[in-house]
Design goal:
The complex is a heterotrimer. By secondary structure, chain A is mainly α. Chain A is about 85% helix and about 0% strand. The chains are: A mainly alpha, B mainly alpha, C mainly alpha.
């Protein structure tokens, strides 16, 4: 096994572990706002690790550029999606996403 | 002149879209180039039509990217924090609820600059698993965030520090 | 079996579990499971593309990455305003 292969396997293993952790968190979380925190590791960390593994294997050819593009999409779009989902959860539960007077006390 | 602004913006978007096409197709075959130029023209036109019909304006400042090099470290740290909390709960630890925190955020510039600032802060803060932005209240100069493991940040800068 | 295919197989098992969560329970939990599932399916496509040496799967993954965001946003908007 070469150093490159070990590096690729380590990156992929870590990406899968993070995905498993996110799935466990999805089930174990107490409420929707807590649950949403487990979207970030799967959407931010795993895609970057997979993209790095592709770059380690392919250098910067077409495949690596596409893998990096996928990671870039998730990096930029996941925070926006988290915000929209959290707002929807708050509005459905409380009628407004803003803090109420009771919550401010 | 308004038409000069529209043409400049159209050209800028056309160049960006065509560059993306070239990156994705990785070929300079003339048929592909023509197709890419046409697709980029459609995308640039759609972008400009939406922009001219009241899309929110955003005017970013490049020095807002100063905390960017720290973000990978913050993401790695917060991933450990979040999974450590999950592991603690799974081992039978008492469930500690996440917390909503109102973080002061100063009012700056005009609407376009404020929109861009809110976008930068939302993306930068919400990349880390422990914190995500829910919204901005301009009247109160506050940003509402949710944290799984509360750290009680007193300002936006604290969210971008170790 | 290369490391890519092993990782893809592991992700497919996780996707199955996330899919079960997306099929049951309260609606917001299902939406969050859908969002995570969309990301994992995209990653599985990238891994399968490398494992099977198929360039076209990469194109699918790029399109799916954009579509996952768009469809999740539509669901979330409906849930916030009308459903």
């Amino acid at each position: 096994m070469t150093v490159q292969q070990i590096l690729i396997d380590a990156l992929l293993g870590l990406a899968v572990l993070v995905a498993v952790g996110s799935a466990v968190g999805l089930v174990a979380a107490r409420d929707d706002l807590d649950r949403l925190h487990y979207l970030a590791p799967a959407s931010v960390v795993s895609p970057v690790l997979v993209a790095l593994a592709v770059v380690a294997r392919e250098a910067f050819d077409g495949r690596a550029i596409k893998a990096l593009l996928v990671a870039a999409f998730f990096l930029v779009l996941n925070p926006i999606l988290s915000q929209a989902t959290a707002r929807a959860a708050r509005v459905r539960e409380h009628g407004d996403w803003r803090l109420s007077q009771e919550e401010r006390r | 002149m308004a038409w000069r602004r529209v043409v400049t913006a159209w050209l800028a978007v056309w160049v960006a879209c065509f560059a993306l096409w070239l990156l994705l197709t990785s070929t300079v075959d003339h048929t592909e180039l023509l197709t890419g130029a046409g697709a980029a023209a459609i995308a640039a036109t759609a972008f400009e039509v939406i922009r001219e019909h009241g899309a929110p304006r955003a005017r970013p400042r490049w020095w807002w990217l100063k905390p960017a090099p720290l973000i990978p470290v913050l993401v790695a740290r917060d991933t450990v924090v979040v999974f450590a909390e999950l592991f603690r709960q799974l081992r039978g630890g008492r469930r500690r609820p996440g917390r909503l925190v109102a973080v002061p955020i100063p009012d700056i510039g005009d609407t376009a600059e404020r929109n861009a600032r809110h976008l930068f802060v939302t993306v930068g803060v919400s990349l880390s698993p422990n914190t995500y932005v829910i919204g901005f209240e301009p009247d109160r100069h506050e940003m509402l965030v949710h944290q799984l493991v509360p750290t009680r940040p007193g300002s936006v800068d604290e969210l971008f520090s170790l | 079996m290369t490391g890519w295919l092993v990782a893809a197989a592991a992700l497919l098992v996780v996707i199955l579990a996330v899919g079960i969560v997306a099929s049951t329970g309260p609606v917001m939990r299902r939406v969050i499971a859908l969002e995570i599932g969309g990301v994992l399916v995209t990653l599985a496509l990238v891994l399968l593309a490398e494992g099977f040496d198929r360039d076209v799967y990469f194109d699918l993954a790029v399109v799916l990455a954009a579509m996952t965001f768009a469809t999740s946003l539509v669901f979330v908007r409906f849930l916030e305003r009308w459903l």
